[in-house]
Write a structure and sequence with these properties.
The protein has about 160 residues and is mainly alpha-helical. The chain is built from 6 helices and 3 strands, in the order αααβαββαα. The protein is about 50% helix and about 10% strand.
């Protein structure tokens, strides 16, 4: 179920990207403190890539991820990367080490692949919520009702509607 939810989330990102021009994708938005949709999408992509690229190695450090700036300006590059993630994401759970460098002190924590998938899904939804602020003022862009909303919130709303 987790992997299916992630695939659905990534497909929402694909649906959005297919509607954007490179200019819209790389436009600096005051609502995002002059960040771009592309910068947020690049960040989502890179964290998933970091997890997948380090799965076999068994140690993940999101702080030392690649920062591929073309991903924040070229919609087709972003689409290509997300499509690759969709193909690679379904892996068995296994123990991993998570290295983080908060405030320049390196620390290693125990984690596992599925826990990191949950983190990446929540992280993607968080960035989608930010992206949605800009997308809502672009009337030609359509996103899923679930875009940028946590699954627990969607479930709560569904229960309230009954």
């Amino acid at each position: 179920m987790l992997v299916e939810n992630i695939k659905n989330n990534l497909c929402e990102n694909i649906e959005l990207l297919r509607q954007l021009t490179n200019d819209e994708y790389s436009h600096k938005n005051t609502e995002l403190s002059n960040a771009t949709i592309g910068e947020h999408m690049r960040h989502i992509i890179e964290l998933f890539e970091c997890l997948l690229d380090n799965y076999d190695f068994g140690s993940v450090n999101y702080d030392n991820r690649k920062r591929d700036l073309i991903l924040q300006t070229d919609v087709n590059e972003a689409l290509s990367k997300i499509e690759k993630i969709l193909v690679e994401i379904d892996k068995p759970n296994k123990s991993l080490s998570l290295v983080h460098n908060c405030y320049s002190t390196s620390e290693t924590l125990s984690t596992n692949y599925f826990r990191e998938l949950v983190y990446n899904l929540e992280h993607s939804i968080h960035h989608q919520a930010l992206i949605k602020v800009v997308v809502l003022r672009l009337p030609h862009i359509k996103v899923a009702n679930s875009f940028g909303i946590a699954p627990s919130t969607l479930e709560y709303r569904r229960q309230c509607a009954q």
